[in-house]
Amino acid sequence: MTGCSEAGVPYPPKTAGESRVTMSHMMQPQDANPAGIVHGGVVMKHIDDAAGVVALRHTRCNVVTASIDRLDFHNPAFIGNLLSLKASLNLVGSTSMEVGVRVETEDLKTGEVRHTASAYLTFVALDDTFRPRPVPPLLLETDEERRRNRQAQARRRVRLAEKTRETSCRTDPEACHAPQE
Question: With bands split at pLDDT 50, 70 and 90, how would you rate the model's confidence at 156?
Fold first, then answer.
């Protein structure tokens, strides 16, 4: 299938493997601070790019980043390291998708590979008028994909509960002072 499906035409399910991507980038001096450590913002941009490719591959439509649910840095990346990003679809809603990204760095001189960062991003598919549009369902094939999907559903429940609480706080500031369960 190429391009977005027409309104009202259901999408056939797609597998996570159809959109999965691995992207690699050599870290250069302009990517780093004076100590040679790659800026977190550079890593974040590459994470967003890799996740965006996954969302675009899955939908074949325009997509935008709606949120970054988690971004955890584990180890630094340095000038000269190869930054590799492995991105895969975890969950699909009606118009949105969660993409997980694992970032690793390889010291090309020693071959040492370290887990650098992990992130979960939510993307929304857009139609030609920039309104949310339906996305293809996700067909889960492996136990690993089912586990990732269950974990993504739990993160989604937390995100939605936080969003509800934030809305409540805006409309009723006293609700923000109530103890959380």
Answer: very high
Q: Three-state SS across the chain?
A: CCCCCCCCCCCCCEEHHHCCEEEEEECCHHHECCCCEECHHHHHHHHHHHHHHHHHHHHCCEEEEEEEEEEEECCCCECCCEEEEEEEEEEECCCEEEEEEEEEEECCCCCCEEEEEEEEEEEEEECCCCCECCCCCEECCCHHHHHHHHHHHHHHHHHHHHHHHHHHHHHCHHHHHCCCC
Q: Which pair of structure tokens corresponds to residue 154?
A: 């739990």
Nearest alpha carbon to residue 51 among 32, 34, 71, 76: 71
Give the range with max mean pLDDT: 6-10, 133-137, 176-180. 133-137
- For the chain, the domains span 14-175
C-beta separation of 122 from 90 below 8 A: no
Which CATH class name applies to 14-175? alpha beta
